[in-house]
Amino acid sequence: MNMTLYLTMDCNLACTYCYQSNNESSCEDAFCKGKTITKETARAAVDLSVKKCDDRTGICFFGGEPLLCKDVLYDLMEYCGKIAKTGHKFSFKLVTNGLLLDENFMRFANENKIMVALSHDGLMQDDCRLTKDKKGTLDALSPKIDLLLKYQPDSVVLVTVDPSCVKKLSESVKYLFNKGFKNVAITPRYAEICPWDDDSFSVLSDEFQKLSEIYVEKTLNGDDFTLASFDVKIRDYITGGKRVGKGCRLGEKQVCVMPDGKIYPCQQFIEDEYFMGDVYSGIIKEKLDYIKEIRKPTPVVCDDCGLKERCRYSCACLNKQCTGNIGDISPFQCGFERLQISCADKAAEILYKKGNTKFLKKQYGEFYNLIEI
Amino acid sequence: MKINPVKNPKKPDYPDLNELSKKKKSKKLVAFLAALASFATTLTGCQVQGDVAYEGVAMPPVETEEQLAGDVALDGAVAIETCEVDLMGETAVDTVFINQYQFGEDGKWIFSSVITDEENDIEYLLDDGRRIKFYSGDLLIVSGATPDEVFDSEGYGEYIKLYPDMVFPDDKVFYTADGETILIPEYNNHYVVFPKKEDEEIVTLAGDVVYEPEIAGGMMIETSEE
Questions:
Q1: CA angle centred on A258, ends A77 and A85, rounded to 5°
Q2: pLDDT > 50? residue A106
Q3: In which element (H, E) is residue A237 found?
Q4: Least buried of A33, A200, A329, B161, by fewest C-beta within 10 Å?
């Protein structure tokens, strides 16, 4: 069982695009009921997973800012350590804004094999990721990035791009690579009232063209790196859409546990309709069946699209976030998927034609020799 | 911005795995034979047959016995060749890519595989009803057979024996049925070992494997001796 465990809904930042702080109705309900998880609730979540699944629990610590709850985190890790001695396997991830990272925590993270991912927007950081008194955080985070990468050189940085500062996207990605990150994932700001218009999308397209050049350049340099928008799309093509073909597994692959112990299928679905149970009494089968049922519709308009094996058109969370309906893809999402595929292919074609070893080994893996022979 | 399904998208100018797999058999065969011949030469000094036929084929990183010992990925083993296999047993649901073949010091065959599927949900059902889960990045080890028993008469590296008495050790140190100790480099924290039963007679796998090319080019893989 994989779970996103919300340690707290509190945060030490006030990002302009935060869907949690802007979602008033949710905040009145599940988001803010029991804003911070108790040790007992966190342990109960683990107990539920251990009881429910055969041998493995994956936990992603999330928030709010999860490092505001280090005491709960430390307690839970100790608890998981005891359970692990019985043979149960755990894997841990944590998504943080980075401000509270310190040597002690990073040592703890490494000792306990917690993979730490950083939410950071590069040079766009001061546009959107602000403190509550509206100050930028780029400078404050620079030494934190150094610290993170000192302990976890393969850490992933998660970039959210907002239309208001999209023109800085490629330079931001460059900045993050230059800071030493090897793994960068980009997500545009999604919202039901689409923040993107034709002009900002046009800038986004230009920026992705530049990212395509960066991808080629870094590969030719022999750098070890991943740029998710590119690598995922290339890999999906090479493997024939095997990953996408499995479709959305809302509520099945992982669940979301809120600080009050309530369980939902995903952080985009914190609504009564999608309530699946709680950590004390477990997942309600009828609710899970309902989730499985409602996740089935995929956008009819995509049926004949030749790119669907490389597209996230069936992602219930994205569709819900962008259109309010699981079964509807938004025009922006459709455009963004096509943009990523187009730019990824452009880079891949250049590198393939050049017979670049780094590219071939990275994308074709064990089939590399077949290309070489 | 509008939703714009692309009915006939331009085909990217780089190959997918289907295209590669069409080429794989002939190339894989010569590559493997070359690897095997080179390995045989290394160990016994025997004459490599058909050298010319293998000209231009990438050779394995084995030149001398010293290197064989020095290049170990497993204790006393060396990577030979890469290959691919489809696990298409009764309920096998996904593809496993074999990352490397390896020979043990005693000449016994060791097979290892790294699953590259991105979803952590590959399952394989054994004849005895046990369900085995594979996770992304798993390292699979098959040991206890000799190369002849793993490869069919044509020399393909696709016929894999899954022994029913597989064990799931927690430690990095595994003991095969032959008493051999294998040190496995840590890989994603998950290992599955397929040791041969101590009293089990080795059978020729070519006779056990049902080849069903119409099933996505896959193999039916026998999981017991019956």
A1: 25
A2: yes
A3: helix A228-238
A4: A33
- The span from the first CA to the last CA of chain A, in angstroms, equals 42
Instruction: Give me the domain span that covers residue B122.
Output: 72-220
Looking at the complex, report in whole angstroms how far the Cα of residue B201 sits from the nearest Cα belonging to chain A: 32
Residue in A299, A332, A369 nearest the CB of B82? A369
How much of chain A, in percent, has pLDDT values that exceed 70? 90
For residue A359, is pLDDT > 80? yes
SS3 A229: helix
One-letter identity of residue B106: D
pLDDT at A201 over 70: yes
Out of A237, A240, A303, the one facing B12 most closely (by C-beta) is A237
Element containing residue A220 per DSSP (H, E)? helix A198-220
Q: Could you give the C-alpha distances from A239 to A342, B4, B158, in angstroms and in order? A: 17, 24, 19
Alpha-carbon gap, residue A260 to A30, rounded angstroms: 8
Taking the CA of residue B94 and the nearest CA in chain A, the distance in Å comes to 9
Other C-beta atoms closer than 10 Å to the C-beta of A52 total 12
Q: Which residues pair with B133 in a beta bridge?
A: B123
A307 to B9: CB separation less than 8 angstroms, yes or no:
yes
- pLDDT of A373 higher than 70: no
Retrieve residue A184's tokens.
């960068």
Residue A55 is classified by DSSP as S
Query: Is A331 close to B58, i.e. CB distance below 8 A?
Result: no
Helix, strand, or coil (residue A5): strand
**Closest residue in B to A58 (Cα–Cα):** B120
In a domain, B53, yes or no: no
Chain A hits for B119, CB-CB cut-off 8 Å, are: 243, 246
Q: Is B169 inside any structural domain? A: yes
Task: State the total domains in chain B.
Answer: 1
Residues 313-332 of A with CB under 8 A from B: 329-332
User: B171-202 burial, b for 16+ CB within 10 Å, e for fewer?
Assistant: eeebebbeebebebeeeeebbbbbbbeeeeee
Among the partner residues A198, A303, A352, nearest to B1 by beta-carbon distance:
A198
Q: Do B5 and A329 touch (CB under 8 A)?
A: no
Residue A115, CA distances (Å) to A107, A119, A153, A222, B56 in order = 12, 13, 11, 25, 44
Residue B93 within a domain = yes
- B10 domain residue, yes or no: no
